[in-house]
Amino acid sequence: MDEISVKNLEVFCHHGVYKEENVLGQKFLVDIISKVDTREAGKTDELALSVSYGDICRCVKKEMTKQNDKLLERVAERLAECILLQFPQINEVEIEVKKPWAPVLMHMDYASVKIKRSWHKVYIGVGSNLGEREEYMKLAKERVSGLPKTRNFKSAAIIETEPYGYTEQGKFLNTVYYIETLYTPEEFLDKLHQIENEANRKREIHWGPRTLDLDILLYDNLITEDEELTLPHPEMTKRLFVLEPLCMLYPRGIHPLERRRYADILEDLKGKEQ
């Protein structure tokens, strides 16, 4: 991915722990590295096909001066989020906020905080088989697509499926969502749990009936294993009701662990269940 860089942008503002810093203010220096595909802009010389570094600078200045923060970490986080939300062509940004006059009573060039933030691609399994199934699926779509710090929501078609695991229950409605987010996996999972709670989700029987079930299937190609969240979802390649709608959105995608396309995994699973 190409880069558009701004180095040592000077902004006078009032961030710091001490009262004097908040009252008197001081100069901060900011480095911004934005990951952007510049090929079409380079071929056509059209600004609309790239991102104006002048607009990035104005965005940074406005964000840095609109409020006072104690920590450089907070300043950098706000800047990264502001840039990614304001400039859709930017998929990743690296921010370094430098404080040349940090009050440490020793000589140094500056203190700084550097962070890197980006958009993440997430696939979510969705299911309901209890109560007003259609209404719960509608609620899920409205709430997930309306989450802040997200973009480019897509939904596969809804399918009706037989229960999996615990079979003494009604049929499910299932689908898969795609969305891009700035949330970490843990933050995004918490948002999904809040939506499930709004639908009065109860976790009483493993694989049992539920008003609404929202599972993170994939988060980029991240591979994790802990008690709260395992990625990719460990059961996804065994479930037709996940693979069928997933392949509507992402048929040529490759499973991070199995290194096989989802369309091929789906065909193999169909063959086994015939």
TrEMBL record:
SMART domains: FolB (SM00905)
MF (Gene Ontology): 2-amino-4-hydroxy-6-hydroxymethyldihydropteridine diphosphokinase activity; ATP binding; dihydroneopterin aldolase activity; kinase activity
Chain ranges of the 7,8-dihydro-6-hydroxymethylpterin-pyrophosphokinase domain: 206-217
Pathway field: Cofactor biosynthesis; tetrahydrofolate biosynthesis; 2-amino-4-hydroxy-6-hydroxymethyl-7,8-dihydropteridine diphosphate from 7,8-dihydroneopterin triphosphate: step 4/4; Cofactor biosynthesis; tetrahydrofolate biosynthesis; 2-amino-4-hydroxy-6-hydroxymethyl-7,8-dihydropteridine diphosphate from 7,8-dihydroneopterin triphosphate: step 3/4
InterPro entries attached to this UniProt entry: Dihydroneopterin_aldolase (IPR006156), FolB_dom (IPR006157), GTP-CH-I_C/QueF (IPR043133), Hppk (IPR000550), Hppk_sf (IPR035907)
EC number: 4.1.2.25, 2.7.6.3
Assigned protein family: In the N-terminal section; belongs to the DHNA family.
The protein's role, per its UniProt record: Catalyzes the conversion of 7,8-dihydroneopterin to 6-hydroxymethyl-7,8-dihydropterin.
Name by which UniProt lists this protein: Bifunctional folate synthesis protein
